[in-house]
Design brief:
binds 3,4-dihydroxyphenylalanine; elongated; 41% helix; single chain; alpha+beta; seven-stranded mixed β-sheet; two-stranded antiparallel ribbon
């Protein structure tokens, strides 16, 4: 009887594997599982067996019935799905929306600035985010003991160099690429450097530990302050509109001499004074100046022969001002409710 059952199971599964229509499936269901079906007949005959055999054969027969029923159900679903939809297209169903990505607000501003500077013959460069103390500070005229280091405290890497010093850090600004560019390309030189920087900030609405900057460097034989001013005026008009004015006031940065800040008339109130510009009418977004002779020398350029200007924008801050974003932390949050507005 055991053999008979196994054979029957094999036969049923074989028949099922060939089934293509619902009609044939129903026929097979009646043939095997129906009240007078082959499997049912065997199950019924079990009651006449001896007690021991009854138990053994009963268990096998039930297991087979289960397996076969599951297979019937599976094929029923498969065929049913196909038969229902075959040849039927519901043209009234609305189309599926394809989610389309878009640029991040900081990337939009970066691309605008890159376009402007490329049109004036500047190269677009990048540099390492993991920097050495030398490029990030020393070569930019910020020696170990200089108090200017305090303003740019950052994340140091827990690894000593050959001299037993910790000299690897996440760059605090894009300025180290000035030195790398001078060493690689020499003078004359025109380059802009967008990139990600890091600071050990206690984060709040105005401070974020990861920020984007946009650095500029131009070196030639007679480059002076008026070139810098002309370029920064152009940038302001491109970013905030033709009416935008530039104001420059002395500010100390160790890598430039003289050093200056750069402020544009507030794009939101047109210079009248508002919440964003804190009533002043001006937005400070730039640090700039004429490249310090020590910095030119670090880059291998003769300060007697060449001069140049440099500037650095806070890209993250520009994006905040341009789009009226009131919390610096949103830009890096990855929050789609924020990002989908751009
Ligand atoms: N690196 C400066 C900062 O992160 C910004 C800066 C100031 C860049 C003056 C410059 C510059 O190139 O000339 O605060």
């Amino acid at each position: 009887m055991k053999n008979k059952l196994e054979e029957l199971k094999k036969k049923i599964l074989e028949d099922l594997s060939r089934v293509k229509s619902g009609e044939l499936l129903r026929e097979l269901e009646i043939k095997y599982l129906g009240r007078k079906g082959e499997l049912s007949n065997i199950l019924r005959a079990i009651k006449d067996l001896g007690a021991e055999e009854k138990q053994e054969i009963g268990a096998i027969a039930n297991a087979i019935k289960n397996d076969v029923s599951v297979e019937f159900e599976r094929i029923k679903k498969e065929i049913g799905g196909k038969e229902e939809t075959a040849g039927f297209v519901d043209v009234t169903i609305p189309g599926k929306k394809i989610a389309c990505g878009h640029l991040h607000p900081i990337t939009i501003i970066q691309a605008e600035l890159e376009d402007l500077f490329k049109s004036m013959g500047f190269m677009v460069l990048d540099g390492p985010e993991l920097e050495s103390d030398y490029y990030n500070f020393e070569a930019l005229n910020i020696p170990k003991t200089h108090p200017a280091r305090d303003m740019q405290d950052t994340f140091y890497i827990d690894k000593k160099n050959q001299n037993g010093e910790y000299d690897l850090l996440m760059r605090t600004h894009t300025s180290p690429v000035q030195i790398r560019a001078m060493q690689k390309y020499g003078a004359p030189l025109r380059a802009v450097i967008p990139g990600r920087c890091f600071r050990s900030e206690a984060t709040d609405a105005r401070h974020e530990h990861t920020l984007y900057q946009f650095e500029g460097l131009m070196i030639g034989e007679d480059i002076n302050f008026s070139h810098l001013k002309g370029i920064l005026e152009l940038v302001g008009k491109k970013l905030f509109g033709a009416e935008t004015k530039l104001r420059m006031r002395p500010k100390f940065y160790p890598f430039v001499e003289p050093g200056t800040n750069g402020e544009y008339t507030c794009s939101l109130c047109g210079g009248k004074g508002c919440r964003v510009c804190k009533g002043s009418g001006w937005l400070e977004v730039i640090g700039a100046g004429l490249v310090h002779p020590n910095v030119l020398a670090s880059g291998g350029i003769d300060p007697e022969k060449y001069s140049g200007f440099a500037f650095g924008f806070g890209l993250s801050r520009l994006a905040q001002l341009k789009y009226g974003i009131d919390d610096a932390r949103l830009a890096m949050s990855g929050d789609l409710r924020f990002l989908n507005q751009f």
